[in-house]
Amino acid sequence: MTRLTCYRCGATEADLDRKRCDCGEPLWFDAADAAAGFEWPESTPPADGSAPDAPAERGVWRYRDLLPVDSPGPNAGVVAAAGDTPLVRAARLDEDAGCRVWLKDERANPTGSFKDRGSAVGAARVAGADAAWLGTVSHGNMAVSVAATAAGVGASAVVLVPADVAPARLAAIAEYDPEILRVAGDYGALYRRTHEVDAPVTFLNSDAPLRVAGQKTTALEICEAFVRGAAGDGTSAPDAIVLPVSSGGHASGAWKALRELRRADLLGDDAPRLYLVQAGACDPIAAAFRADADEVTPLADPGETVAYSIANPDPPSGTRALAAARATGGAVVSVPDDEILDARSRLARDAGFAVEPSSATTLAGLRRLSASGELGAEEEVVAVLTGRGFGAASDGASPPDPETVDLAAVRDRIESLVAGT
Ligand SMILES: *Cc1c(COP(=O)(O)O)cnc(C)c1O
Ligand SMILES: [Zn+2]
After folding, report:
1. What is the pLDDT of residues 223-279, one digit of tens each?
2. Is residue 244 lining ligand 1, measured as CB closer than 6 Å?
């Protein structure tokens, strides 16, 4: 895969470090040729008892033919461990949800969220390089995931957090010993500025093309399980996939996966609809969907929500996520905090899945979608439980106290970090 492409205007880009198209939308890897010749990887071990053609690869690397970087091989530690998460039927939730419920348990990733899929593919790009640096702008699951993955490939990491980051988050991130910088100033503007610092640091932010490529494997696994007989009736894809959405990176990846499988002619006639769920207090993508708008407009004054991992008022891939829901015949809905908390306890009490509030938006969203007739009782629907959440810091160690840098000085500070001065 040697070029990037824009889903909206079709422009192509040979500079693989670019993140955005001139039209303003995020770029992703052009996998059209790879997808055209793609077949499901061999099951392991081969069903007929013969020796496999090639050694089996774990997790996201099962789909290496559709990924833009070479697999680092099966001995790559945490980078080999992302993906391959359980997909289970949870019939006890059917009546509540109004459809046949399947749960995709992304807590099973090494740091407890699907972010590890994208981090693994991003880190594979720098694995083995001398003095490589990974970076991210996050104080949540992405920060933890990038720090852990960098540690796994022997790269350094820099994590840019907001000045008022919660101590428990700092402790969770610091566990992997990245450089942490608190940044004073506009955190949204910081996100855009990191594109300027890319090289010497590979920033794996939410819409980085490498990250989106890795995160498409969630939907590849779901579809493979259904189409090849491990789930559902064993012949067709699920009717719908439901994802909590914030930046829109995961949803973009899921859409990309469906497009590639369709191109490979592996989905039959019925590709799943993508339903995206947001928290009512911060729902710019759902608002654009309701308004029938073509673009997502940033929210000037978002409210607070318990779903802390999906509260992005200015989602960098929001418009692409909106397009994904529309193009697949799905929708974007939002749910209030009381429904999220109720769904969260229902997932734990009736199915045994304790997840973070963001992930529970899926069940809250299912209820609304079936009540409005979008989903039928006989439909097979996969809710993606995206993450485990931040418990209390594991061993009571006191949180670190990283330095604070002004937004305007971030670039210089990172360059001196990388230079070791
Ligand atoms: C990041 C995250 C999301 C949202 O994913 P986006 O790619 O930002 O839309 C949802 N749930 C959890 C647990 C997350 O960490
Ligand atoms: Zn474009």
Report:
1. 999 999 888 887 899 999 999 999 999 999 999 999 999 999 999 778 999 999 999
2. yes
- Number of structural domains, the chain? 2
Q: How far apart are CA 391 and CA 52, in angstroms?
A: 41
Q: How many CA atoms lie within 13 A of 42 on its CB side?
A: 14
42-56, 143-157, 331-345, range with the lowest pLDDT: 42-56
Distance 288 CA to ligand 2 centre (A): 19
Instruction: Tell me if 185 is assigned to some domain.
Output: yes
Considering the entire predicted model, what is its pTM?
0.94
- State both tokens at 177: 């010993």
- Residue 48 CA to ligand 1 center (angstroms) comes to 39
The CATH number that applies at residue 172 is 3.40.50.1100
State percent of the chain over pLDDT 90: 76
Best of 246, 334, 347 for a ligand 1 pocket test (most atoms within 8 Å of beta carbon): 246
For ligand 1, atom 1: residue with the closest CA: 309
- For 108-152, the pLDDT digits (tens) are 999 999 999 999 999 998 887 888 999 999 999 999 999 999 999
Q: Whose CA is nearest to atom 13 of ligand 1?
A: 387
Residue 238 and residue 101: Cα distance in Å, rounded?
Answer: 10
Domain span at 142: 133-199+392-419
- Residue 139 shares a structural domain with residue 278: no
Give the Cβ contact number of residue 349 at 10 Å: 11
Nearest residue CA, atom 11 of ligand 1?
386
Asked whether 248 lines ligand 1 (CB < 6 A), one says: yes
